[in-house]
Amino acid sequence: MNTIPLQLQVNGEAHDVLVEPHWTLLHVLRQQLGLTGTKENCLEAECGVCTVLLDGKAVNACILLAVQCRGRTIMTIEGLGRPGRLHPLQQAFIEHGAAQCGYCIPGMLLTAKSYLDEHPGEVPDPAAVREAIAGTLCRCTGYQKIVDAIRAAATRMREPA
Amino acid sequence: MALPNRFAVVGHRLPRLDAPAKVTGTQTYGTDVILPGMLYGKLFRSPVPHALIRRLDVRPALAIAGVRAVITAADIPNTRYGPAVKDMPALATDRVRYIGEPVAAVAATSVEIAERAVAAIEAEFEPLPAVFEPEAALAPDAPLLHPDWARYQALPILARAGNVASHSRIHHGDVAAAFAQCFRVYEHRFTTPVVHAGYTEPRAATARWEGDGSLTVWSNGQLPYEVQATLADILQLPVSLIRVLVPGIGGGFGGKLRIALEHHAALLSRAAGRPVKLVSTCEEELTAAHPRQASIITLRTGIGRDGTLLAKQARVVMDCGAYAGSGAGTAAVALQIVAGPYRTPNLLLDGFAVYTNKVPTGSFRATAGPMGNFAAESQMDIIADDLGIDPLELRLRNVVRDGDSGPAGEPLSAVSVEECLRKAAHAIGWHDRRPGPGRGKGIACGWWMTTGGSSGVYVKLNADGTATLSSGAVELGTGALSGACQVLAEELGLPLDAIRISAVDTAGVPYDYGAQGSRTAFSVGNAARAAAATLRQRIAGFAAARFGVAPERVTLAQGHAVAGTESIAIAEVARLIQLAGGGLIAHGTFIAPAPPHDAARVDNHPLPAWNTPSFHAHAAEVSVDTETGEIIVERYVVAQDVGFAINPTGIEGQIEGGVAQGLGQALSEEIVFHEGRVVNANLTDYKMPTAMDVPSIESILVEHASVAGPFGAKGVGEPPCIEPLATVANAVAAATCVRITDLPITAEKICRRLFERGADNVPPVGQPSPAQV
User: Which end of chain A is more exposed for a tag (fewer CB within 10 A), N or C?
Assistant: First the structure.
């Protein structure tokens, strides 16, 4: 199989990788870069656990070819925040009990970040949050505490630092 | 409002201990395991539902570059395994019994190569007559799935015959005599389909053989000790040579109770001499995992003129698929569920687990609970409407109360179903049951067990003053282990963030019956209490000797051992004992005593009386678009008796998530078969609720303290998915006068029934069929 050299900007860092043309971004993130915080499940863009940000927009990494990401910026859960320096969304998810098994949570958090970034200064109503995260399945929480956490984070992000 | 909390840690809304790892993507799951030299496994699965294997040629697969091993039944020990009936081979031997049954396994250097190798395997099958419906499988001339059934090992309590993997019965009084004297006798038949637990992390297993002949397996199963024991059976190895680690689980809900891919990984790894990892695809999950049984439930219920339940007869048929799996227990537990939390003087309840040529089933949250409750609680509403009694009132006239007996004659205590019903009804606004056109409210109640089984924990006091809990119970997402840690922290006078949870590794953690059956916080919590008592005693003894006081005078609080004005940090105690006494580790154990019951009432039932039952009631308001049949759940209320709420936030999370799963089963989820083949094996066509399909859920925590649970807690995790099916069915019936008895309640079914009825013709609710008595 022919391999293609590719530079990916992931979480603010440049990565030179050799990819096969059919490899998905998900495959490269998990297998080549070791960024296993991005999860894998259905591989057909139905469950949303593989959601990452591509140029700030939420995308399903399982159906995006890595070669389509040349010259674009990618954020995975590892780039959102880390213990001791959590993003307000992460902090709110902890405080509201929004994570149970946690497998959908990286995708859920990045979906929420994408939505809040598109609606700066707003605290979306619950229905808007539910619509925003409808592409990511969570089987544990019934979504309620996730909705609560996203709205709490939006409130916190609106306050002056 | 709740009483003020007199405890420092339990009863508080504290963040679960694993939350930081889970929001930062640093939690490791079974799918994340990568080992040096690791190969990838794939399974060659049967394309036919029932056949003899006439030819199997794996040589074309072995010839592919990158393929390191191909195995068939001829290459592995000829053993069968299963939790109740040992009927399942690791790889099909002479015959296949369902589409998707593993026949051969391949290990290769990449997933793609393994897939190509699987496609290259050549096989010829000689079709056998297949049976897809359990009623057909019960016919005397039905094809036998397991001609050797009588030679299988099985739990001695099971009654088996031919395609019946298990038949359980609960009986009391004389139903025939009672029916003859009833004011009305109602008979209805309810069906529910196969549904998948829907965990977001697929099943995964990685295995590696070590130089000393031992095996290490990384599993995302719920029961590491059962995985170990099952592997020992399959591999013919002593359990001590099998080490099972559970790095993390992306949801299980019972669907990951049974061994899944661990044995295939182990067998392939032995053949290839390298570590092997397998991960299920979405299609494999929906065609060949361990979904919930389909059920057919026929209820015959006799009632007095005043609405008193006098007799109930039930025939529960669980379609367990090609292998028994959890079918025996499910068919048996269904009997307590269809009896319900009601006084019924005459009972005759039969449960059958029946083999068919379909995917073998397993357990899914509350096993038979949702199916049995759907039938029993739908019928209660049908009866209420026919008698002109309010459905809430009919239930209140019949519910069990403290001092009553359960179906097996077991005495019931801390009974709270009336309070749950009243609270749920009040919260939903029951006085206005049909608030407008196309709108209706439904209510349902039920009960469930706190599963028993033994728990062992080690609690180690660390030199920094923290404590580490080691348990064979894994954290599959429920937060139950954090709940057990709250119990431990309370007992040790430590804050929750001073408790650590050790990695799950059968080489180090004590036995636990496992994260199943709403038992983890209850049972591990109690074991942790026992360990804490030992630690307290030793800390107090140590401190008392230093203070020169009697040990009884020493108390533990806020990380210190205190007696009068004397005080020493627990950390200092731990450090000194570590230096001088080999450290401070306590072994705590617990097993719930088997509840007493009347053995004459039960035949061949593995769970005749339930440990610490919980009671609950759900209420919903729905709107139904009478043009399109679309159902929207507008409001949803749960009143659940949790005994004592160890962590209210965590419990609400269980309720909200369980209801969402129940709503999926009520309204949209169904694995659809055509002649044994799943036709919707993807998440586009297997519809689980999204955030837009689930309403905001109001949780009312009722606390009737149990005798046995830590601080009075009862099992919490499974019950929330039991009642939504009946609750929604009853609400839809109230909204439309259409009674759906076959799940899921789809828009198409509503539309068809409304169309058949005609727009102007408003019939009576339900379809009672008074028997000829």
Answer: C
Distance between CA B301 and CA B380 in Å, rounded?
A: 9
Same domain for A70 and A96: no
Using DSSP's 3-state secondary structure scheme, residue B190 falls into strand
Contacts of A43 in chain B (CB under 8 A): 281-282
**Residues A48 and A96 grouped into a single domain:** no
Rounded to the nearest 5 percent, the helix, strand and coil shares of chain A are 35, 20, 45
**Are residues B306 and B368 located together in one domain of the fold?**
yes
Interface test with B, best of A86, A94, A144, A150 (most B CBs within 10 A): A144
Tell me the backbone φ, ψ of residue B567, rounded to 5 degrees: -155, 140
Is residue B8 domain-resident? no
Q: Does residue B561 surpass a pLDDT of 60?
A: yes
Q: Tokens 């098994």 map to which residue?
A: A101
A contacts of B28 (beta carbons < 8 Å): 36
Task: Evaluate if residue B762 carries a pLDDT over 90.
Answer: no
Judge: B29–A39 Cβ closer than 8 Å, yes or no.
yes
DSSP string over B537-594: HHHHHHHHHHHTS-GGG-EEETTEEEETTEEEEHHHHHHHHHHHHS-EEEEEEEEPPP
Residues of B in contact with A139 (CB under 8 A): 197-200, 251, 253, 657, 660-661, 688
Residue B317 burial (C-beta neighbours within 10 Å; 0-12, 13-18, 19+): buried
Nearest CA to B33 out of B285, B255, B246 is that of: B246
CB B106 within 8 A of CB B41: yes
- Is B315 inside any structural domain? yes
Distance from B351 to chain A by nearest Cα, in Å?
A: 29
CA B119 from chain centre, in angstroms, equals: 35
- Choose the closest CB to A44 out of B29, B249, B682: B682
- Residue numbers of the domain that contains A22: 4-80
Residues B109 and B72 in one domain: yes
Q: What is the CATH number of the domain that holds B122?
A: 3.90.1170.50
- B5: pLDDT strictly greater than 50: yes
Predicted local distance difference test score (pLDDT) of residue B453? 94
CATH number of the domain that B739 lies in?
3.30.365.10
Q: How many CB pairs under 8 A join A and B?
A: 176
Contact B15 A146 (CB under 8 A): no
> In chain B, how many domains are there?
3
Q: What is the pLDDT of residues B712-749, one digit of tens each?
A: 999 999 999 999 999 999 999 999 999 999 999 999 99
This prediction's pTM: 0.97
Last residue of a domain, which of A57, A80, A103?
A: A80
Check pLDDT > 80 for residue B772: no
Three-class secondary structure of residue B227 per DSSP: helix
